[in-house]
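Postdoc handover notes: sequence design on the structure in folder B. Input tokens:
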């Protein structure tokens, strides 16, 4: 049997398709409560900064990273993924994770890969395979705040920074290419007008 052969029933057809009600929590505020500020995210991202077209200086990269971060955290699904990591970190510190002792959590044992999967999922959710590549780069080097975070949050924040960084580079290069295209079109137009 193929999936396409299964009749679909929308048992949730009457549920709203959009967020409803007042939003009372913001993921950036929650991260700050956990001691992780936007400035820390930016500083960590820029530790691995490499100039690219459209991102020729650290100042440009910082501005674009902040803009891409704002775009990313406007997505409720991403915020929930990040929040799940925060809850796992909190429960791990209390020794309340299922099937993992507090001492195993504290040692960040290599056979526990849920944290890596979550980090990769966040990076991929934000920017696809490019985000996963950036996640790996940040996960291996553990720059900035990543070296100070617990077993779940280093990967959650690494995934966030990796995904946002990938978008920063991609959009920066695309904007630079578009600006160059417009510059050339203007040159042609100026020559034709002369």
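Designed sequence:
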């Amino acid at each position: 049997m193929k999936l396409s052969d299964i009749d679909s029933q929308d048992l949730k057809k009457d549920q709203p398709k959009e967020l409803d009600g007042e939003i009372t929590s913001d993921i950036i505020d929650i991260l700050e409560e956990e001691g992780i500020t936007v400035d820390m995210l930016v500083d960590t991202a820029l530790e691995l900064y490499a100039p690219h077209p459209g991102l020729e200086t650290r100042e440009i990269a910082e501005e674009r990273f902040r803009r891409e971060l704002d775009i990313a955290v406007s997505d409720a699904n991403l915020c929930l993924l990040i929040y799940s990591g925060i809850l796992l970190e909190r429960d791990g510190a209390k020794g309340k994770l299922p099937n993992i002792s507090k001492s195993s959590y504290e040692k960040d044992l290599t056979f526990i890969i849920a944290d890596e999967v979550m980090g990769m999922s966040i990076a991929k959710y934000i920017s696809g395979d490019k985000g996963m590549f950036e996640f790996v780069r940040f996960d291996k080097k553990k720059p900035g705040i990543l070296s100070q975070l617990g077993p779940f949050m280093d990967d959650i924040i690494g995934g966030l920074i990796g995904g946002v960084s990938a978008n920063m580079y991609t959009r920066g290069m695309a904007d630079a290419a578009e600006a160059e295209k417009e510059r050339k079109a203007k040159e042609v137009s100026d020559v034709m007008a002369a």
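Context for whoever picks this up: The chain has a mean pLDDT of 91. Don't rerun without checking with the PI first.
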